[in-house]
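Annual report, structural modelling task.

Input specification for the P-hydroxybenzoic acid complex:
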Amino acid sequence: MSTTLFSPLTVGDLSFANRMVMAPLTRSRAGEGGVPTALMAEYYAQRASAGLIITEATQVHPTGQGYIATPGIHTDAQEAGWKSVVSAIHAQGGKACLQLWHVGRISHTSFQPGGAAPLAPSAIRANMKAYTVEGFVDCSEPQAMSEAQIREVVSAYGEATRRAMAAGFDMVEVHAANGYLIDQFLRSGSNQRTDAYGGSVDNRLRFLKEVVAEVLRHAPAQRVGCRISPVSGFNDIADAKPAETFSAVAQFLGSQKLAYLHIIEGQTGGERATDLVDFAALRATFKAAGGHTTLVNNGYTREMGDAAVSSGAADWVAYGVPFLANPDLVARFKNNWPLNTPDQATFYGGAEKGYTDYPRYAAK
Ligand code: PHB
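The model returned the following structure:
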């Protein structure tokens, strides 16, 4: 029988019920101090029939925040909150992966400890808005990280991984996509450093390499994935030679025997087509170098996902907005049931509405 979205999958000692992944989705509903809430536990538990849930992006360090009410994983209270979320997912038979995040320059001084300038590889402002308590304002001009600041943030990724494992997460995902800190180091437009962290592809990869090494001190490779978005311009980011840069990234991540490589194909949440990068080639590079599985994402329908998995092009398919609006997305796909309509107005912030109140399918 051919592999479908509903076929089980094993990675190392972890078994997953199917190939449908809930993609990481920022929902901005964390409690005071970036602590995950009981409502978040309910939301994720409702979606536990996904083969794997990747959580919303979660800051590894106080300087890693750039949005209101995003959760963290750098305090005891945050770790305890996540432990409740993971328990709720596990109680429903699901598997959970925490997405490790630092926004870098996609931030504003009002989010930063002491009102300091946000951290970035280079002092180049992103032409983006940050949503603060005072509404939308320009992202602040960042400061170029010193070597000491780099060391501190790299070690925060390790500490966050230790906390994630202590909270019971099955996996962690290193967020190296979407123009946030790691991506800012990888891509030539935002990284103009002249030291060992900038210039050549090897140098631009150094920060990612140090982060992955630190993460692997606290979790085995079979429990670590990484997300990239090689051609996405989201968050005002660009690279002069994305095929070259991300081929080296895929090669490195594979050589570390990571559990999965998660690729956002095309523009984040938008146009998929591109002639800049061959995503199949990146997946092949990752696997040939020793990586275990590949995850594809961005605008996949059920049919596209089934084709990707049954042809062997990818091992998993990550669905974002469809999971947000359909807690029982797996059953709906399996039975060809119609989908709920997502409500954009309640994507970010608020409470139950547009979060835990999307209904499961009920025959009329
Ligand atoms: C967002 O909050 O809009 C957001 C966060 C993380 C991403 C992408 C978008 O990777």
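The domain at 9-26+60-67+95-321 is CATH 3.20.20.70 (TIM Barrel).
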